[in-house]
Design goal:
By secondary structure, the chain is α/β, with parallel strands linked by helices. It is 47% helix and 20% strand.
Length: 314
C-alpha cells in the first residue's frame, strides 16, 4: 500500500516505523529541522524499554499537493495542530484518512473535510497507546511489546475497515474497532487532564506528589466530575469500566495512582517532556465549553486547576 504519515513527531515516527516493517510504501510529511533529520539520518527511534535503536530510511515530503494520491493517509499530530492541516487534506484527492491522536472536535473535522474536498472522503479516528519525546535528532519511544490502537468512526461502522486492516496486519500493533470514537476521545481527555495536573502541581516532582493524599483524591473526584459533564451533554463514557472505576472503585483507583506515580514508567508518562502543555491547554478549553453546556458544578475539578501543595514542614 502507498501510505502517507502526515506528522513526524513521536507517534507519527513510530507509526511510520511499523508500517515500513509491514512492507508498505511509506512517505512521511515533515517540515523544518525534523524533515532534515529524516532526510539525512533516517527515522531514528530509541525503543526505551526494548533497549534497541532502529533506523528506517523513508521518503520525506514537506507539502501535500492535491494530486499526491495515497491509498491511506494517517494524520498524526497534537490536537491544536489539526486545524492548520485540514485545508491541505481537503484539497488532496486521496479518499481515505485516519486522524490519530487526542481530539476534542472530530465531528467538526469530518464536516470540514467532506464539505471542502473534491472527492468523497472516508474519515476515521484513532488513538495509539504510546508516549515519548524527541531528543538529539531521534525519537525516544516508550511503549509495551505490542502497542494498542483504538479506531472507529463517529457512530457508524467503518465500511472500509479492510483497508485499515491491510495497513496494520503485518505490524506489532493490536487494534480494536469501536463505533463512536467521539465518545471514546472525550472520555479519554477527561481522564488525562486531571492526571496531567499532578506533575504541574509539584513542578514535575512526582515522588512528592505521590505522598499528597489530598491531591490524589482531588484527581479521582475530578475524573468522576468530568464523566458527569460528558453524561449531562448526552455522551456515554467509553469504555464503561472507566466510569465505574472512578465512581465506585475509588480506593483501588487511589492505590493504582500511587503505584503509577512511584514507578519509572508512570513518572515518564506524566513527565513534562512526554506531555504537551499546549495540547493540554486546548483540551482544557474544550472541556470548559462542555462544562458550560452541561451547567453543572465541578468543585474538585476547579480546585485541582488551582491546587497548591502544602508547604513542607507545616
Amino acid at each position: 500500500m502507498k501510505i502517507l504519515v502526515y506528522g513526524a513527531g513521536v507517534l507519527g515516527s513510530y507509526l511510520a516505523h511499523e508500517l515500513l516493517r509491514g512492507g508498505h510504501n511509506v512517505t512521511m510529511l515533515a517540515r523544518g529541522r525534523r524533515a532534515e533529520e529524516l532526510e539525512n539520518n533516517g527515522n531514528v527511534i530509541r525503543h526505551y524499554f526494548q533497549f534497541q535503536t532502529t533506523v528506517n530510511h523513508v521518503r520525506v515530503i514537506r507539502e501535500l499537493q492535491p494530486d499526491d494520491v495515497y491509498d491511506l493517509i494517517f494524520v498524526v499530530m497534537k490536537y491544536p495542530d489539526f486545524e492548520a492541516v485540514l485545508p491541505a487534506l481537503a484539497a488532496n484527492h486521496s479518499s481515505r484518512v485516519v486522524i490519530m491522536g487526542n481530539n476534542a472536535s472530530p465531528g467538526e473535522m469530518v464536516k470540514y473535510l467532506q464539505t471542502h474536498s473534491p472527492v468523497a472522503k472516508q474519515v476515521a479516528f484513532a488513538f495509539q497507546t504510546i508516549a515519548g519525546w524527541r531528543e538529539n535528532g531521534r525519537i525516544i519511544s516508550v511503549r509495551g511489546p505490542r502497542t494498542n490502537i483504538t479506531i472507529g468512526g463517529l457512530g457508524e461502522d467503518l465500511s472500509w475497515r479492510s483497508v485499515i486492516d491491510q495497513a496494520l496486519v503485518n505490524t506489532k500493533y493490536k487494534w480494536t474497532y469501536i463505533t463512536n470514537m467521539d465518545e471514546w476521545l472525550k472520555s479519554h481527555f477527561v481522564m488525562i487532564l486531571p492526571l496531567n495536573s499532578i506533575a504541574s502541581s509539584y513542578n514535575g516532582n512526582l515522588r512528592r506528589a505521590a505522598k499528597d493524599k489530598k491531591l490524589l483524591n482531588l484527581v479521582i473526584h475530578a475524573v468522576d466530575e468530568g464523566h458527569q459533564v460528558l453524561e449531562k451533554n448526552g455522551y456515554t463514557v467509553t469504555p464503561a469500566a472507566q466510569k465505574q472505576f472512578a465512581r465506585n472503585k475509588r480506593k483501588l483507583f487511589y492505590i493504582l495512582l500511587k503505584l503509577m506515580l512511584s514507578s519509572p514508567i508512570g513518572r515518564i508518562l506524566l513527565s513534562d517532556k512526554a506531555v504537551s502543555a499546549n495540547e493540554m491547554t486546548a483540551l482544557q478549553q474544550a472541556f470548559d465549553h462542555l462544562k458550560i453546556r452541561a451547567n453543572i458544578t465541578t468543585p474538585h475539578w476547579d480546585e485541582l486547576q488551582h491546587y497548591s501543595p502544602p508547604i513542607q514542614g507545616s
